[in-house]
Design a protein that fits this description.
single chain, alpha/beta, TIM Barrel, about 40% helix, binds 2-phosphoglycolic acid
């Protein structure tokens, strides 16, 4: 279902104590300040060791949801150091980020592996937040649409209609992640509209209209309102600015 949504991707930041303190601040600031009827759902994605404790701090039945940053593609077994989708669901996760460019780049996750991860997440009842996005070289070579079209085709569009219904897409241009360089709202809108058009082609017009598509890459309290006002931008996947309660709450208020 299409909805306004803001997800905080903490990446490999925050100790247990710091993470709990941050979430307590965010939930109380949001309870005090967020009143708009179109205010977003909020997904908090901390590192694995913090998930369970943070999940317990999120008010039940509220706009807050718990998400993980990755999962393994197998259900269980001899995979030392890995965490399965089923384990994530068992500690209260509803969402999982898959295909983040940092995982694609540093952990060599390719479309084939990501297809398996998507299946594993969906089988465990998790909602994937599937990331796509081009590098600066790709953009400068005028290959952005080809590149993202291929990521969608090879990584995502193998899902059935029912499975695809559970997916949120995040457009995260690699050149904008953690760099302070945000895509302009027009650049974001253009790619989001392209993604929606590709969904309509792969599934149907209804699926395209119903998909939540987030923007990520140096989104912050200053630029969020302009980005979120674009017709095909339904919210954000926020890295750096999700680690500060004031900034993150202001982003949540930007609808
Ligand atoms: P950033 O990260 O907001 O720090 O650029 C976004 C992301 O990588 O999800």
């Amino acid at each position: 279902m299409r909805q306004n949504l803001v997800a905080g991707n903490w990446k490999m930041n925050m100790t247990y104590q710091d993470g709990l303190a941050l979430v307590s601040e965010i939930t109380s600031m949001v309870a005090d300040e967020v009143t708009a009827a179109n205010a977003p759902q909020v997904v908090i994605c901390p590192p694995f060791p913090l998930l369970h404790a943070i999940g317990r701090l999120l008010p039940q039945g509220s706009r807050f949801h718990l998400g993980a940053q990755n999962c393994h593609h197998k259900e269980s077994g001899a995979f030392t150091g890995e965490v399965s989708a089923k384990m994530l669901a068992s500690v209260g996760c509803e969402y999982v980020i898959l295909g983040h460019s940092e995982r694609r780049q540093y952990f060599r996750e390719d479309d084939e592996l990501l297809s398996q991860k998507l299946k594993a997440a969906l089988a465990a009842g998790l909602k994937p937040i599937f990331c796509v996005g081009e590098s600066l070289d790709t953009r400068e070579a005028d290959e952005t649409f080809n590149f993202i079209g291929k990521q969608l085709q090879d990584g995502l569009f193998h899902l059935s209609n029912e499975e695809f219904d559970q997916v949120t897409i995040a457009y995260e241009p690699i050149w904008a992640i953690g760099t302070g360089k945000t895509a302009s709202s027009a650049q974001a809108q253009e790619v989001h509209a392209f993604i929606r058009e590709r969904i309509a082609r792969a599934y149907d017009a209804k699926a395209a209209l119903n998909t939540t598509i987030l923007y990520g890459g140096s989104a912050n309290a200053q630029n969020a309102r302009e980005l979120f006002s674009q017709p095909d931008v339904d919210g954000g996947l926020i890295g750096g600015a999700s680690l500060k309660s004031r900034d993150f709450t202001d982003i949540i208020k930007s609808f």
